[in-house]
Design brief:
The chain has about 190 residues and is α/β, with parallel strands linked by helices. The chain is about 40% helix and about 25% strand. The chain has a single domain, classed as Pyruvate-ferredoxin Oxidoreductase, domain 3 (3-Layer(aba) Sandwich). The longest helix has 18 residues, at about 170-190.
Length: about 190
C-alpha cells in the first residue's frame, strides 16, 4: 500500500492538524510515513501545504513528484487548483467550497468549479456548514479529513482515535465535536 497525499489551504485553516491526525493514525497502523510542510506566511491567510507519503514499505523521499498524488485534500478551493499538476491519473480531489478570498483577482467560483470538474469525480464539500452542524465552525478541517478519509488507506477508527488524541487536552466536548465533524465529512465520500 502506498498513498501520496497533498494537503492544501491557507494559514489558520487547520492543515497541520489534519496532517497530525493522519500521521498518528498511520503510525498506529504500523505504516511508514514521510511528511514535508510549507507553512507559508507567518500570518493567517498565507498558503500552507503538506506532502504526506504513507506506505507499508520504506519511503525514500518526502516530496511528491508532479503527477503522483493519489489525493489532493484542500480546505480552500483555489488552493486545490494550485496543486492539480501533482494529481496522478485516477487521483482524487477533495475540496472545501468555502473560499478564502485573500488576493485581488481571485477567480469566480464558476471558474474554479469548471477546472475542478475536469478531475475524476471531485468531492466538493460545504465544510463550514457541516462543521457548524457538528457544533463548531472551527471543525471544518475535520469535516474535510472525513471527506478525504476513504482515499487515505487508513481505517476510520484509527483516524478517530488520532482525533481524540490530538484534541483530548481540550476536553471531551471538543473531541466529540471534531469526531462528529469528521463523520459528517465521511458521509460525503464513503465508498
Amino acid at each position: 500500500m502506498q498513498k501520496n497525499i497533498i494537503l492544501a489551504g491557507v494559514g489558520g485553516q487547520g492543515i497541520l492538524s489534519i496532517a497530525a491526525v493522519v500521521d498518528q493514525a498511520a503510525l498506529k497502523e504500523g505504516l511508514n510515513i514521510r511528511q514535508a510542510e510549507v507553512h507559508g506566511m507567518s500570518q493567517r491567510g498565507g498558503a500552507v501545504q503538506s506532502h504526506l507519503r504513507i506506505s507499508d514499505r520504506e519511503i525514500f523521499a518526502d516530496l511528491i513528484a508532479l503527477g503522483n498524488a493519489d489525493l489532493i485534500l484542500s480546505v480552500e478551493p483555489l488552493e486545490a487548483l494550485r496543486y492539480l499538476p501533482w494529481l496522478a491519473p485516477g487521483g482524487r480531489v477533495v475540496t472545501s467550497l468555502d473560499p478564502f478570498v485573500n488576493m485581488p483577482g481571485y477567480p469566480t467560483m464558476e471558474e474554479i468549479m469548471s477546472e475542478l470538474g475536469k478531475t475524476e469525480r471531485p468531492v466538493l464539500v460545504h465544510a463550514a456548514e457541516l462543521a457548524r452542524e457538528a457544533g463548531s465552525a472551527r471543525a471544518s478541517n475535520m469535516v474535510m479529513l472525513g471527506a478525504g478519509a476513504p482515499f487515505t488507506g487508513i481505517e476510520q477508527g484509527r483516524l478517530e482515535e488520532a482525533i481524540g488524541a490530538l484534541f483530548g487536552a481540550k476536553g471531551q466536548e471538543v473531541v466529540d465535536i471534531n469526531i462528529r465533524a469528521f463523520r459528517k465529512g465521511l458521509q460525503l465520500s464513503n465508498i
